[in-house]
UniProtKB/TrEMBL annotation:
Residue span of region Disordered: 1-36
SUPFAM superfamilies documented for this protein: ABC transporter transmembrane region, P-loop containing nucleoside triphosphate hydrolases
Protein name (Swiss-Prot/TrEMBL): ABC transporter ATP-binding protein
Domain ABC transporter: 386-620
Keywords for the protein's UniProt record, in alphabetical order: ATP-binding, Cell membrane, Membrane, Nucleotide-binding, Transmembrane, Transmembrane helix, Transport
Regions that span the bilayer: 56-81, 101-127, 183-200, 206-223, 311-328
Family that this chain belongs to: Belongs to the ABC transporter superfamily. Lipid exporter (TC 3.A.1.106) family.
Compositionally biased intervals (Low complexity): 1-17
Molecular function GO labels: ABC-type oligopeptide transporter activity; ATP binding; ATP hydrolysis activity
Organism listed in the record: Streptomyces bathyalis
Chain ranges of the ABC transmembrane type-1 domain: 57-347
Organism lineage: Bacteria, Bacillati, Actinomycetota, Actinomycetes, Kitasatosporales
Superkingdom as given in the UniProt entry: Bacteria
Gene Ontology CC: plasma membrane
UniProt-listed InterPro entries: AAA+_ATPase, ABC1_TM_dom, ABC1_TM_sf, ABC_transporter-like_ATP-bd, ABC_transporter-like_CS, P-loop_NTPase, Type_1_exporter
Length: 636
């Protein structure tokens, strides 16, 4: 098995955009952007917003009203200049100039107050929608990651998953929190302003509309260029995170194999690449801001100049020109913001595409449409019969690993699986635990195809204890109870006692309530194995798969583990990937594998007595071992 750190060293952080020096990704899952149906990102966004339709409509209404209040300002100014001020000077026909000006002033104040209040209400409404959307999205990613199988996780890596639910969700948050509000406000204000200008003076309105052509071209150009830059930037960021998590996840291997310097160099390279991409994106932004401002200011100057000539010629009222100048400023003001918005839009679109690709993946071992219940176990502790019926198997990325074979594992018996590394032992047991489905044939549990057994029932019935004996963060008691969360404290303690784990657990600072911390850093390898066995014993599965630890424990440690193993195997159908002579000797049956084939099958005594591979392996084992006193089979 390759360690995480070695994988990290072997796999360049991300293979999405291989440079000229990088080979193409060997696995379609070893990349950031996964294959997804067309418009997956848009569909995802739609599905996230759909439950909030009424709220979205309410927020849109608030925005429309707020913009109406904001855009009334220049109109009031025009009215004041062209009507209220002349009335005050007594130029108009009727009197009451004072009252008119005060009324205009009050109306202006009212509009300002209304615009502030409405903006506040809109921000609150939009934030409520955003929070719920992001909460749902993060939850979906997490649930989906748990549902996807190891076949997906191995090449995709945990770093990418973390990147999806942090950086990518983060850039979507930015878009929803700031960008989207910005864009909506810009669109609504542009529509209001253009309509008002056209109403005030069709010539000025048409000129303002015409000035949009060069601006639209600028925006379009920026969109295209920044889309490229943003995608590269987010991929570069993901590569940094992947490298970081893989290094930290495999820190033991990193330090054991002195990978620090090589990792530092690789990390510096990835970090540098991210820096460059970030610089590129800032440069694009700067280019856009400068050119768009220049264009907008030129447009304002030209239009106001033309308006001034028309005022001088008596063709346009002064108040209308003043209002037009105010409107033009407001029209072009959001151009910079639009760039910012496009900024977060591009990066959010790239992120959404990646998240949608992840969520579009379907587990390769799907839940059955109409699950079939397993027959009841004969008595509380019986095992189940396992049949490999004309099974053959090949991994998604390779050729056939297990050529067609048939095999029956009798209920309640222990089978030791031996063979050279790469012979296919782990692959065979992965089929039994349904981490993969066979390419051809069926795996039957008491006559029921594993494909028809509901996931939860399968996990209850077939339990795997791996070499790693993974411990989750939490207490020792919680770790033991993982397979049966409803177990009482007494049951947990009994399981630990039956396996001889009670003594060392009691000696821990807080006994069963001691936090094991990540990966059980506080307890030894042998003790971790015992906790894992206690977990299996409490879960009481019909079929137990055991990937025996290859690490050489000390003699008392090994003996304790051996004893515990016999306790946990008793009465179940068990398959043990055996690395120790002592384990093989306690098995009822030994299967020898070679190049994916079962080449020998018999009781340990039969095979030792024969002339086959196992006999040779057995005598080599015997010669190389300083024999520890092995508990005898009938001591079980
Ligand atoms: N996820 C995978 N994708 C592609 N090929 C794989 C995968 N896992 C294992 N293989 C290949 O399948 C073959 C059998 O591997 P398997 O892990 O079953 O062997 P094993 O007998 O358990 O070896 P070991 O004792 O070293 O764990 C090997 O050639 C291996 O390279």
């Amino acid at each position: 098995m390759t360690s995480t750190a070695e994988t990290a060293a072997a796999t360049p952080g991300t293979a999405e955009e291989p440079g000229p020096e990088q080979p193409p990704a060997p696995d379609p899952f070893d990349r950031d952007v996964l294959p997804a149906p067309p418009h997956a990102a848009r569909t995802l966004l739609g599905s996230l917003l759909r439950p909030h339709k009424p709220r979205v409509a309410g927020a849109a209404l608030l925005l429309l009203l707020q913009q109406a209040a904001v855009q009334a300002g220049p109109l009031l100014v025009a009215f004041a200049i062209d009507h209220a001020v002349p009335a005050l000077r007594g130029e108009g026909d009727g009197g009451g100039g004072q009252g008119l000006l005060v009324a205009v002033g009050l109306a202006y104040l009212l509009c300002a107050l209304a615009s502030g209040g409405l903006q506040y209400a809109f921000i609150v409404a939009a934030a409520r929608i955003n929070q719920r959307v992001l909460l749902e999205l993060r939850g979906r990613i997490y649930r989906h990651a748990q549902a996807l199988d190891v076949d997906f996780h191995d090449p995709y890596t945990s770093g990418r998953l973390i990147s999806r639910s942090t950086t990518d969700v983060g850039s979507l948050r930015e878009l929803l929190d700031e960008g989207l509000q910005e864009l909506l406000a810009v669109i609504v204000s542009v529509v209001y302003i253009v309509l008002t200008l056209l109403w005030l003076d069709p010539g000025l309105g048409a000129a303002a509309l015409g000035s949009f052509v060069p601006l639209a071209l600028l925006v379009q150009n920026f969109r295209q260029r920044s889309a490229r830059v943003y995608r590269s930037r987010s991929t570069a960021m993901a590569a940094v995170i992947v490298k970081f998590t893989e290094t930290v996840g495999g820190i033991r291997a990193v330090q054991t194999f002195r990978r620090e310097r090589a990792n530092d160099e690789e990390f510096a390279r990835l970090n540098g690449r991210h820096l460059k991409m970030n610089g590129d994106s800032l440069l694009e932004m700067a280019r856009y801001v400068v050119t768009s401002r220049l264009t907008a200011n030129t447009a304002v100057a030209v239009i106001v100049l033309w308006g001034a000539y028309r005022v001088a010629a008596g063709d346009l009222a002064l108040g209308v020109l003043a209002a037009a100048a105010l409107y033009l400023r407001r029209l072009y003001e959001p151009i910079d913001h639009l760039g910012m918005f496009l900024n977060s839009y591009q990066s959010a679109a790239a992120s959404l595409e990646k998240i949608a690709g992840l969520l579009a993946q379907r587990p390769s071992v799907p839940e059955p449409g109409s699950p079939q219940a397993l027959p009841p176990r004969a008595d509380g502790r019986a095992g189940r019969e396992v049949v490999f019926d004309s099974v053959s198997f090949g991994y998604r990325t390779g050729g056939e690993v297990l050529p067609p074979f048939g095999l029956t594992l009798h209920s309640g018996r222990t089978v030791a699986l031996v063979g050279a590394t790469g012979a296919g032992k782990s692959t065979l047991v992965k089929l039994l635990a349904r981490f993969y489905d066979p390419t051809r044939g069926r795996v039957l549990l008491d006559g029921v195809d594993l494909r028809d057994v509901e996931g939860a029932e399968l996990r209850r019935s077939v339990v795997t204890v791996t070499q790693e004996a993974f411990l989750f963060s939490g207490t020792v008691a919680e770790n033991i109870a993982i397979g049966r969360p409803d177990a009482t404290h007494a049951e947990i303690e009994n399981a630990a006692k039956a396996l001889g784990a009670h003594d060392f657990i009691s000696e821990l600072p807080e006994g069963y309530d001691t936090d094991v911390r990540k990966r059980g850093g506080r307890i030894s390898a042998g003790q971790r194995q015992l906790v894992a066995f206690a977990r299996a014993l409490l879960a009481d599965p019909a079929v137990l798969i055991l990937d025996e630890a290859t690490s050489s424990l000390d003699i008392p440690g090994e003996q304790a583990v051996q004893q515990a193993m016999m306790t946990v195997l008793r009465g179940r159908t068990a398959v043990v990937i055996a690395h120790r002579l002592s384990t093989v000797e306690i098995a009822d049956r030994v299967l020898v594998m070679e190049d994916g084939r079962l080449v020998e099958d018999g009781t340990p005594a039969q095979l030792i007595a024969g002339e086959g591979r196992f006999a040779g392996l057995h005598s080599a084992w015997r010669d190389s071992l300083v024999q520890a006193p092995v508990p005898h089979r009938d001591q079980r």
